[in-house]
Amino acid sequence: MSPLNVPASGALLSVQKLTKFFGSFAACNEIDLDIAPGEIHALLGENGAGKSTLVKMLFGVLEPTDGQILWEGRPATIMSPGEARKLGIGMVFQHFSLFEALTVAENIALSLDDSIPIGKIAEEARALSQAYGLPLDPHAHVADLSVGERQRIEIVRALLQNPKLIILDEPTSVLTPQEADRLFETLFKLRAEGRSVLYISHRLEEVQRICDRATVLRHGRVTGACDPKQETPASLARMMVGSEVAAVTHPERNDKGEVQLAVSNLSVSARTPFAMPLRDVSLTVCSGEILAIAGVAGNGQSELFDALSGEYPVSSAEAIIIRKKPVGTQGITARRLLGAGFVPEERHGHAAVSAMKLSDNLVLARSQSDRKAFLGILGIIRQGAVKSAARRISEVMDVRKSGDDPSAGSLSGGNLQKFIVGRELDRQPAVLVVNQPTWGVDAGAASRIRQALVDLAKAGSAVVVISQDLDEIFEVATDIAVISEGRLSRPYPADELTREKIGLLMGGLHEGKHAAEAAHAH
Amino acid sequence: MRIELEKRPQVSKLYAFVSPLLALVLTLIAGAIMFAMLGKGPVEALDAFFVEPLLEVWSLHELAIKAAPLILIGVGLAVCYRSNNWNIGAEGQFTIGAITGSYIPIIFYDWHSPLVLPLMLILGALGGALFAAIPALLKAHFNTNEILTSLMLVYIAQLYLDWLIRGAWRDPKGFNFPVSRDFAQEAIVPAIWEESGRAHWGFIFAIVAAVLVWFMMRFTLKGFEVVVLGQSERAGRFAGFSSKRMIWFSFLFSGALAGLAGICEVSGSIGHLQPAISPGYGFTAIIVAFLGRLNPLGIIASGLVLALTYLGGEAAQLSIGVSDKVTRVFQGLILFFVLSCDTLIYYKIRIVWSRVRGGAA
Questions:
Q1: In order of start, what are the domains of chain A with their CATH numbers?
Q2: Distance of alpha carbon A326 from alpha carbon A341, whole angstroms
Q3: Can you give the pTM of this predicted structure?
Q4: Average pLDDT over chain B, rounded to an integer
Q5: B 163-222 residues with CB < 8 A to A
Q6: With contacts defined as CB-CB under 8 Å, which chain A residues touch B358?
Q7: A117-127 pLDDT, tens per residue?
Q8: What is the pLDDT of residue A250?
């Protein structure tokens, strides 16, 4: 690595009154931001606050409408990611752009000059990954790697360009606590070398822990610039959301009711080459209980959801029992008619059809369970009844939308998610299975959704929450189980588990292998 | 200078309406240029092509005759395409429908009963549906690409018809010409208004089918299911809809309508079977479906427009002496311009002359 040639004083990157309009909508409105050499700078904000737009302008993906960018004190126009890289800006995106069928080195080669031989790239990548504590085998196929390892590829790919500024977009959203710690060490190492990091996140705790300064965005404007270590999570959240975030009142442990959902020895083979098979999964959830299933993405969560929801029925009817009825072989409609509700992870194209109106998206999930109310003769949809139900849900869940019945795609992630969760709550399901209830959702909406889940359980329903977000799990769960490589640990009462313990379980250390650690060995 | 496509935040309702009209105008301009290059006066040529056929009553009847199969098939295809199933083989289903529907008047030519015509129509629809069941089966169970299978089956159907007419079904009293026996009177779809022209009830069927399908798509759960599965199979599965069943439904439904169109055409406007029974209705109906925005009521209008290109082609052949292939050229131009104008619905076009930078840069 050559020594970094940065002016002794002044900012590495300075953004002045940067503005981006989409039509008449200002995604970024006169944003000022300074990044000093050798600092980890946080960019905080809810979804839709303009973080991604700002970063895309810095990386040459979008062209600013107005304002200017100063790089090392000189005005710069960044027209393409290539130019950004040449200036010394590297970027690690939230959604990786990797080809699963290729090796690590091949993936890296794709983003570099054609002229560099692949052997040299592999060598450099290995050297870099060791230097920064990001162990990586350049000849491994991406398909075989965990999400954390894939992220390392992206980071190494950015480091190969010897950047002065590295932008990381929500890097820890897919990592275990241990993996995140390792990432932080890498970031500290980068900082020690005088490189700067722009760290985008909405996880307050993380930002307080590792960042030197923070810039907070809301509705496309800067609402605060601070030293996060001087702030409290509540004060940071206030800058992000604009008002106090309601704390979720933790459920009291009451006596367990009847078993509502029982899964026993469920095994499902992988449907696609990249899916995770489920291995011998068992769980029971009673009335009043919220069972959280923790785990790193890609360990069988979506497969488990598909099996529980009946979107892909399993071969044995007895493997899944909803309210005493074996339903393993039946589809989602039969399970809904028994009183179960489901909220999938992906909002667009799974839980909702983006181009359709909210009222249509209500019919999507409830055409059969509310047949009497929503359908007339010949299967004619009663628009009036559907619309008023959609309005009721929007009111109860505080869904903010433009117009009475806009398309699902026009809502922000958080508001659409509130609607999707509200759509199920509205019929008071006896069993609710939710996959990643607040993924990519802003703090205000997330707290609203979590509170709704807690209230539902309090009212006597059984709730399963599949989540990667440990904060969320500790906020809502009465019991916690961990999924890893398609295997589910036994459930632990929430108050007996620590983050560290969950982290170990996430890494696949089950009681058998790690009896000494387990608080409750057999 | 460069041209930029900027995604609109919301689909433009204005352009959704204007785009087909703009496409028609561009088609006419391109057509005028083509006629000029052929050495014909563009104005007279376009007049002969698009205006004259509309000036006489008998000609309007011919328009209805040509529009009937286009609308019937187009409406069925719209359901298919909305559900993301790509039936390209309506021409084949049309042909098989014509064959199965003709079974009674050709084989049981001695049977005279008012039941003959209804039975023919039912058999025609059944034949079309069964023929469409082949690509449906292949897609639903073997994940075969339905575009290829349905398209290739067209040629099988056409050659089968040819073989029948030159063999088993040839008219024994037909001097060895490859035509079937003429249909008896009760096997003919009656004319709507006999005194003024040839248009038959096939056109009425087409309008009724379009209105019914419009109602289904607009108001019922079935129509909702079609659209949901077409937009996102995953969301459809979440709703409890089965994409496999939708493959069957959409193919059988569009096949049945194409088959019905086939037997109506043979019985109503030809009167017997012959090797060539369609100037490509099944393919043109694809253009009809898209020009009509996959909306059954729009398809009535676009069916009439495309019928006019057939009629205009015939007229232009006579009056100004250009090849009837001009019809195909116009149909191609329309589809081309419709698809390109649709870009305007989703995107704004900006011409950027130079880099514009605010601030002190």
A1: 13-241 (3.40.50.300), 259-354+408-506 (3.40.50.300)
A2: 16
A3: 0.78
A4: 92
A5: 219-222
A6: 19, 64-68
A7: 888 888 888 88
A8: 62
